[in-house]
Amino acid sequence: MKVKKSMEPTSTISRTLEISLRIFGIWPDSSCVLLCRLFWMFVLIAGQVFQYQYIVTNLYAVDFSDLMDGFGATLSYTLLSIKFIIFWLNQRTFNNILAMMAADWEQKNSTDFSVTINTATLSHYFSNIIVGFHMLTATLYSIMIVFGANNHKMTKVSERPFILKMDLPFDSDTQFSYGLVLIVQFSYLLITSCALSTLNALLIVLVLHLVGQINILDKWLTEMYSKENGFKPSLTLIRKLIKKHQRIIDFSENIETIYSNIALMLFVSDTLIICCVGFVIVTSIGTPNAVATIIKSLAFYAVINLEAFMFCFAGEYLSVKSKTIGDAAYNSQWYETKFQDSRIILLLIMRSQNQLTITVGKFADLSLERFASFVRGAASYVSVMLAMY
Length: 389
Prior knowledge:
Structural class: mainly alpha
Number of helices: 11
Oligomer: single chain
């Protein structure tokens, strides 16, 4: 029993995500928050300057497929910078989310606290998988670039590619400087991949926590009109239900405030990135370095599609689970009581008809259907690019 208790989570957000959020200046009450934000903004801006400078300088000098490869990676870092800015600007909203989660964890004496524990365990599992997959993909991406250069027998240092295509302001033609740049870029890629996966996994964690609270509310609604209490709920229980429902709505609106604009930028940028990566995969078939290029591009392609899928899945899952609130209220035995005692359940059913969701910049709801449209649209754009190539 002692071992089991020690292994139980104490928060829905895992320690891995918390440490990452502290490093990137997002977690509240962290030391040197302003310094962390200035540091990462400087690092990302410097990397973006070198990456975009490479694209502009080599716009007509390099192969178009190579240019698309660099442009796709550059867009992903631009999106990460935008995510950081959105989180920093909505720090108060994120603090409110964490305060609500902390309040839910304070209900340890409740008989429904096991739902929160199970949700946290599942959240830790998914967050570790997401972060691990992104880190593994970044490592594979780097290995394939170095492997491709060695396999292609590029003896001159000036001919060897960097992990990230950049136009650096210093000479990197020596073996030492080239190796140093590779080490710095590999570290940079791992850290930014960790940041990207952390913000994506955080959305899944928040939605899972919210769904766990919805499940608790559904249970309360089912037991509201029971035979044990004479089909007449107490005033305390009614107040408890209303407060719980309002907290769920507020929690969902806070998630929407943070991730709505992120989802909009994500769909715009990821469509362009998938077009670039898909173009690189198709045009690399039959080339001397095809195996390394395809493996590297497929890893990047998988990460981008996983990111879009996670957002759409989170929106779909939240929408589906929010409908269960009205269903649970309707399926309760409200018809066994007097009209005066059942009016509250009718109002709750009407309010729950406005389903909870996450939107793409307030334009459309995130759903699996939206993800399918996103994939089809990106594929059609790749076909157009190949026809024009």
